[in-house]
Design a protein that fits this description.
Layout (H helix, E strand, L loop, with lengths): L1 H22 L17 H4 L2 E11 L4 E16 L2 E12 L4 E12 L2 E5 L3 E10 L2 E12 L2 E15 L2 E10 L2 E12 L1
Antiparallel strand pairs: 1-2, 1-10, 2-3, 3-4, 4-5, 5-6, 6-7, 7-8, 8-9, 9-10
Amino acid sequence: MLKNIKLTMFKCFALAIIFLLSSCSSTKVEEYASETPVLKLADYFNGKTHAYGIFTDRGGKVVKRFTVEIASNWTNIDGINTGTLDESFQYSDGTTQKRIWTIKEIAPNQYEGTAADVVGKAIGMSSGNALNWKYTLSLPVDGKNIEVQFNDWMYLVNPQVMLNRAQMSKFGVYLGEVTLSFTKD
């Protein structure tokens, strides 16, 4: 009987491990390879773009609303397609923020991005209509800066509209989500 109990416990443990591992799997950008229209950052972020967004906490409550005005352009610097995205944020509480991205296409469909509040480099890959960015951002919270990780997904819906969903975490703990809708002029 003790042998049966141990076997049952082992089976339950094995099933729990399989469930946990399968729930940790993540979407890969290559899964969007056949989706259109094809997202090319230098095409979409070239000129004026507007964005409208919200930040929701881990419970799904909208904590902050904001708009973003983006002026962007691309040049070829030393054979590398390089873009500047000048973002001006206006938050629902009246505060403002500025972020200027420098984005380099380091290989076909592979990008590196930097900004003053990005820790290190943002790494991005695109395929089909999707782009996945991963980076650490230093955010001001209650008078001090905290570093949070972003898993940022962008999906081109049509040549003028792109949707963005970015999950935020710290030490692997989910903090909340940023949702944006971009419209190109």
